[in-house]
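Weekend entry, working from home. Most of the wet-lab plans are on hold until the incubator is repaired, so I used the time to fold the two sequences that have been sitting in the queue since the last round of cloning. Logging both here for the record. First:
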Amino acid sequence: MDNTTPLPVGLTKDEIKRRVTEMVRTVFRKTIETASSQQIYNALAYTIKDYLSDRWIATHDQYESQDVKVVYYLSMEFLMGRFLGNAVLNLSLDETIREAMEELGVDYNLAEDAEADPGLGSGGLGRLAACFLDSLSTLGYPAYGCGIRYHYGIFEQHIENGYQIEKPDNWLKFGDPWSVRRDEYAMEVRFGGKVNSVKDEQGVYHFVLEDYHSVLAIPYDYPVVGYNTNVVNTLRLWDAEAIDRFDLQSFNEGNYERAVEEQNLARRLSEVLYPADNTVAGKELRLRQQYFFISATIQRVLMRFTEKHKEDFSVLPDYVQFQLNDTHPSLAVAELMRILMDTYYVSWDQAWEITRKTCAYTNHTIMSEALEKWPIELFSRLLPRIYMIVEEINRRFCANLIDWFGNDPNKIRNMAIVADGQVRMAYLAIVGSHSVNGVAAIHSNILKTQELRDFYDIYPEKFNNKTNGITQRRWLAKCNPGLSRLITQNIGDGWISNLDELTKLKPLAGDAGFQTDFMRVKRENKVLLSNYIKQTSDLSVDPDSIFDIQVKRLHEYKRQLLNIFHIIDLYNTIKMNPYMEIVPRTFIFAAKASASYHRAKLIIKLINSVADLVNNDKTVNGRIRVLFMENYRVTLAEQLCPAADVSEQISTAGKEASGTGNMKFMLNGAVTVGTLDGANVEMLEEAGEDNIFIFGMTAAEVLALTQSGTYSPWNLYNMDYNIRFVLTSLINGTLAPGEHDLFREIYDAMLNGYGGARPDEYYVLQDFQSYKNAQFKINNAYKDTARWAEMAINNVATSGKFSSDRTIRQYAEEIWRIKPIQVKL
């Protein structure tokens, strides 16, 4: 910006007081004394957004003036968490705002808590995207996050009689102060119809879509504030509206439903994150959602590109990079081809070369069911032109396979993008991208040697690893102020922007004084969580007990069952040995199960049934407590991570791609009990085997046992009394008096298989004894306070690798080839 541009008004304490007071008066017609916490929050949010607007404008002016390459991070999920606290932290305004609110007689914590926690993601995938956006802004990389502005989040989880109940997550109920609606960038997105070929004046045929129906995609922009920088990037979420919102003629004729039909059809697109897909209608809506935000984004990006570079698309990869966050955005490959060919008349060969150089794909799963496939009937009916393009990509790819491997039907069938009546989205992303990355070293290796080996054999140069990371700004500086202050007092605050600085804590791990301070902070966090638990569930938990926490999406491969089976076994042991001495332990679970995932929801009921049994048995005498905290979300995670002593990362080896919850707990001084799975492998390398509890089979051993076909959980049942006792409790009424068969499905899944799956598919019983041994070691280790403190501190000190700043630098340098910018005001 030139020197004549006015500087933004400094947000002093008095200026904050003035702006908030004025905002409350003019917007809500209230005084500070009569305004609600919700209204105070909204006034604060508008004040902060107004303050950062100059930086936001300057950032995008810099994009334009320097004509920089921009990465567009395409994701169905952005689990951002609350905006206010994160923005305040990154703008270094926390102390100033707290003082201003105190002088106004306002409880800032109540105002901050009034903000809705947007549930625009179901777990790690969406939270990773949010961490990446934070790092992109902090490091100064030009970027947009692109997704959907769902009117309702994943769902609000309530627990009634032990069962999960889903209720709408209406995060927009009290407004959306952080967004800016950008009608000038609205895009039309087309569905259905039929494809015709039309000859132009030069006699060249082009494809056009006719008789389609369409919706209008309206972008809402949200600021993503960098830490200690002027860079403010943009999260662009698309909302859907009807092109003709209201049919007045139909309304006047008395046909009221038809009058709003288009509006209702459009609204469904952006209504709910991940509608249940166990019906044809649900599947169709999911596919519509994916195409909706991809088409809108790519149309707008190419329009912006042509404003600077006319139609010289040969240089598009020098200025644009699309990063596909999992398989959901894979349609970007075909949509970019469509627009280049049908709108700008680029030839197939040139369009394909441009597309492959412009797209990159991140694989987030080893689970085959998560590698999306769409029925041809649905895909071709809903997206006829896209389907034609996908079929042609597939035809050319299969022809190449014949050239490379000969006419091998099995090889072609296994690798084809379109096969067995389905369109395989992961394969489309691999073939149509220049980079394919996994998200942890072990995950990337499994992709190359097992799951995607055929593709690695022909595209070895595409495959690479980018181990996930988390932003230390939210996951330590914001959520754990006590530990943050302690760290800064001892090594300075450089760790906030360079997490490797935490290695300076290593010499303090054995220092008695620092250990005392560290454990004092940990206990203060446990007291805060204990008070919250008492307030929300009326359950008293002992802050001097071991806080053993497993929080993540509820899925069988994450093995919440292994955890609860161990608790049942521990309870049985205490019942048989009433005077048994153990360190008291509080087992905490939190997780949402997909609304259509019956087994996962039954496991939630099991956890709550075990909690009812254990917590109400006086003979246990408080030695163990069990609770399931409802409605797991970012804000709850921010309370749990600082308070955890033990972090449960116990998925079946070879099933978890990476994990990021494991990193958040490590950063906050929890000690991990885990398998050699995902990023646990690299956490072991960083922290050392003396500071982590590893158990269970390795990924290689899991694969070998699966391939051998010799595994029999009945053998374990027959030979191990403890396993037999645990499983029998599922069906003898112990956990469900009067409902002996309530948990029989879980019993059968363990021993006989259920619904076509192998018995004990995720090897819960096979790893049970090893897990018990690890838990016994934890109990003994915690008795030695100095040793435990040293372990916990070492975990913090060695967590530097797991910053999303490191991950983003690797993406930027090795995949995207983008450079940071400096924004001057």
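Second, folded right after the first finished:
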Amino acid sequence: MKLFKFLIVVCITVLLTYTFNNRLVVQGTPIPPLGKFLDPNHGFWQNAERDSFPYQSQVELTGLNEPVAVKYDKNGVPHIFANNNHDLYVAQGYIIAQHRLWQMEFQTHAAAGRVSEIIGENGVNFDRMQRRKGMLLGAKATYEAMLADEVTNESIEAYANGVNQYIQSLTYKDLPIEYKLLGYEPEEWTPLKSALILEYMINNLTGYDDDLENTNALRLFGKETFDFLFPEHLPGIDPVIPTDISASWPFQPMETEAPLTALPSDKIKTSLPKPDPDNGSNNWAVSGTKTASGNAILANDTHLGLNLPSLWIMLQLHAPDVNVYGFTFTGAAGITIGFNDSISWGFTNAPRDLRDWYKIKFKDDSANQYWHDDQWKNTEKHIETIYVRGKDPFYDTITFTHHGPVVYDKSFGDEDNQKNYALHWIGHQPSLVQKALLELNRSSNYKDYLEAIENWDAPPQNIVFASTNGDIALRVQGQFTAKWKEQGKFLMDGSEPKNEWQALIPKTQNPYQFNPERGFVSSANQHSVDSLYPYWVYDASYEYYRNRSINQLLTSMDSITVQDMMEMQSNSYSLLPQETLPLMLDSLSMEGLSKEEKDVVNTLKKWDYNYLVELKAPSYFQAWWHQLNASIWDEFYTSDFALDAPNDYTTTYIIKNYPQYKFIDVDSTGQKESLTYLINTSFKQSLTNLEIWKENNQMDYTWGNYKGTFIRHLADLGGSLAGFSRYNVQVNGVADAINSTKRNHGPSERFIVEMSSPPKAWGIYPGGQSGNPGSIWYDNMIDQWRDGEYIPLLFMAAEGDNQEKILFNQILKPTE
């Protein structure tokens, strides 16, 4: 018996020792090595920052030429003062890593398809998709372009030096808590990782397409019906750059030749995951002729996923040839969105179809050769080794044609393993965006701005500009392909050379405005141009509502102030219900409605179309509109094939102008229902759905609750790190309003600058400067962001200025 008890004790001791020193996985959730994690001297306790600024006041860094001063203001924003550019970017890399190391490295793992190394086999399909799309291929091409430019190369090398010196200074005690929770350590930062950060954003902003969904719709419904359901231009659109009828477009467009071959007849059941089609932004610049101060004012808010740590971080960079403040991506040198002494700039996504799919015909199952231009050509094959935590590596063979990687094949993609589709994507091309940003940081006028953004290729953006001398401008900038009409709108035959990208549009032919007579420029991801622009321009994700609201407001406003701009960015009015709800209410029969249902009708009639968190009217409308769409487009939602239903703007156009159209019925009933019938039945069903939602969620369906906006930690998978996230944030707005908030998507920053001398600026974002959940700077700005408030941005002209506003000083000095 004593021996038995002894063996039990030994087994328990061994088990506890293993548990406390090794990472376990319980029901798919990683459990860190508890011994190290709970150690009061080294574990997670060390991440509970008791000091507002838990940084060393003096740090020695190898590679610095002279000391660098870093001054932190009351918002936790670092202001970096260096005596040369090399030291400036070494310091930036060190400071950003000091704040956001885990985030910046995790994003590069996601871009490179290396998540399985961290989370195990649950990440394998994601990693395969990233690698098959060619993310690393594009990042390597961009890295080579960075190397070829001396200034860019020096900047990213210096940045990497700073990041690595921070990493080398860390012990287990100092690691960000995510490394401790997930049980791994940071690796060396390389300039290639900065290229991967850019590729991460290129994918977010150009990775959406509907080629395969369009192909299905074309085959299922025919060309005439397709063109009616998915029109390229409808009445009422308000493009970023309207055609100047008096001058037209003063250039001769590049010529392209369309093939005579038919489109492939495939029907695709499964479409791979894509970025949110609402990834975009608002921006505008107003001339001094329309402002109270006489100074130009620029505003920008970027609409992306709402995450913690936040996508953006604020800082100021000061060296002899640059003094710039703004928002930057973790991993990128310089400032991305911001201002300097003379100019300001910002971005919105410029939607354009930048991904095309080609059907590949292989000679046989070996996929060693494919048919192109009437001959068999050799493929290239890459064997990707995906390291999987706790498992053997997964090997994925990716076949490359001259079009690009074959993403869909017999082992990945659609359920039909005979579909071999190659992807040609702008994300595979080198990008000089890092160079453009560094030059924008130093620009002092419109001419400099144009020269800087000449380097801007991907992701294409609407780049807004304002200056202290009063100029305003907006340019739709990127490297665009000249396409024949409908090229890339559907799956294309990969054997036909004329289906390839034949010519690039010269950047001098990109649309732009400079000091327009109306006194403002603006963009919100709508059509870049109208149908008079001489190139065929198409995208599936154009925005139809925010842009018109912005232009209507700016047209009506005079003596504009910064406060007006703040209120405008928080404007939660939507044109969608304004343009649809009256028709829906007019078609609603009051006979047979209960008192409660009549109360809902009265509430909707009194609603002013503002999406405020305390109201129920927005919830009533959204639930009703969703149910009505489900009834009209049931053929799309119930199809066995990948399909996208027509968008809200097209749906509104059809129900107003073609109420008898053949799709306006419930396909499954076998009889033709009227629009009035669908409006009435969907109204009742939507109220039933809301009551079910209320019971399931144990809360009332006010708009704030029903929308349920949340800001989730990047590693919060399935709510496992709910304490690091913020749920049920009661923020006004809706996707179609200027304040474009959805559940986990919305204004990832708001920024306003008045171009006085010196400029004055305000900003906010839904998070904080620190990436550490134990810091007071982790999520301290969320409530202000929610409420439409801003913090004034401290723009220092020199190191010794505004000392009363500086709370902490850090000196980075050369190693002795």
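Plan for Monday: verify the second prediction. The chain has 23 helices and 32 strands.
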